[in-house]
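Lab notebook, bench 4. The sequencing result for the construct came back, and we need a structural model before the next group meeting so we can plan mutations. Quick request posted to the team channel:

Model the 3D structure of this chain.
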Amino acid sequence: MRFDVKLILNTFAVGFVCCALASGAQIRVTITNLAPVNGTFLTPVWAGFHDGTFDVYDSGAPASLALERIAEDGDTGQLMTDFTASGVGDAQGTIGGGPVSPSSSVSMTFTLDQMSGNSRYFSYASMVVPSIVAFIANGDPLGFQIFSPGGTFLPADFIVLGSMVNDAGTEVNDEIPMNTAFFGQMTPNTGVPQNGVVMVHPGFLSIGAGGILDAAMFAAADFKGAGYQIARIQVEQVPEPSTTLSLMAGLTALALAIRRRSIQTKRSPV
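Done. Here's the predicted structure in token form:
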């Protein structure tokens, strides 16, 4: 039997590429809580991929209902509804099944069409707990481009600092336990309404004021401290390019093995 090595290799390569394009790009989002022990937690994190027009919030403007629910109670439901209704995004998800504690990580893998304009940009949002209305999110919908117009993946890896924590302005930061998520609040939406606007969070009440920082389990939760790190967010493609190269190298080795066997067969006596 005659083996066409070049044809075999090309068939494997084309099959691999077609399979990859058919299944879409596998993009993994990982959130790691960088707060110290007895520091801040995060609620499950909303992540979405869109065309660059889905705006989670605007500084200096009133919070949307979706942002209010994220910032007050860590509830991503309304934000997911709004994202779906917008029609400008291909994929979204809520990452993590519960509070993300200091030093822990959560992740989710999304399948995206790298050529779709509705998968080009990345956004995120999460509540910082314990708090009344503290949250992290990217205010600029164009802030994190993860695909070029030609479909090239552009990884993202960044740190969210405590100085970047925002206040939704929807409830008063009184830090009364019954009003404070993850501190003593038993039911959602129990804070004192404020009707303010989104702004940089002023920080927790000073130690001795009877608030969050006076609780031993949150003694290191002062995110306004110099260099305080809230989270690391990574957006990466899987498999990594090195994995793809290894697979192609394996296919090449297989084709060469077939070729050697073909040559040996031809040289064997009848």
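The longest strand covers residues 229-238.
Will bring this to the meeting.
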